[in-house]
Amino acid sequence: VQLVESGGGLVQAGGSLRLSCAASGLTFNNWNMGWLRQAPGKERELVASINRSGESTDYVDSVKGRFTISRDNAKNTLYLEMNSLKPEDTAVYYCNARLGAYGYWGQGSQVTVSS
């Protein structure tokens, strides 16, 4: 199983980025998916999650109204659209696949928001 994130980078506050996570080696539409992030010195936190069909999503309060999680099951790809970015959004963002007690992680993508 491979989860490969892309789309991170450096952006000014107020800007936008879109992260992608390409999945292979698993039946993508069987897995619930999520984006987590970890800032230096902080614990990893769940930012957004989406169910297998894409019909149900959930967000941490700090990103509600700014971030949108979506998935394309035909392309085996997960997305995170991030708008109105803030310096406190700076972190390594990880793609996660979850099925019961099982889970897989991507290698992470750095997002840096300058003030």
Instruction: For the record, give the distance between the C-alpha atoms at the N and C termini, rounded to a whole number.
Output: 37 Å
Stretches where pLDDT is under 50 for at least 5 consecutive residues are: none
Q: Which range does the strand content fall in?
A: over 45%
What count of helical segments does DSSP give?
0
Please state the CA-atom Rg, rounded to the nearest Å.
13 Å
Helix content: under 10%
Spatial shape: globular
Tell me the number of strands: 11
Content-based structural category:
mainly beta
SSE series: EEEEEEEEEEE
Oligomeric category: single chain
Q: What's the mean pLDDT score?
A: 97
The biggest beta sheet, please? 7 strands, mixed
3D structure, described in words:
- It is built from no helices and 11 strands.
- With 115 residues, the chain is mainly beta.
- The strands form 2 sheets. Strands 2, 4, 5, 6, 9, 10 and 11 form a 7-stranded mixed sheet that branches.
- The chain is globular.
- The chain starts with a strand and ends with a strand.
Question: Topology, pairings included?
Answer:
Layout (H helix, E strand, L loop, with lengths): L1 E5 L2 E4 L4 E8 L7 E7 L6 E6 L6 E3 L7 E6 L4 E6 L8 E9 L2 E4 L3 E6 L1
Parallel strand pairs: 2-11
Antiparallel strand pairs: 1-3, 3-8, 4-5, 4-9, 5-6, 7-8, 9-10, 9-11
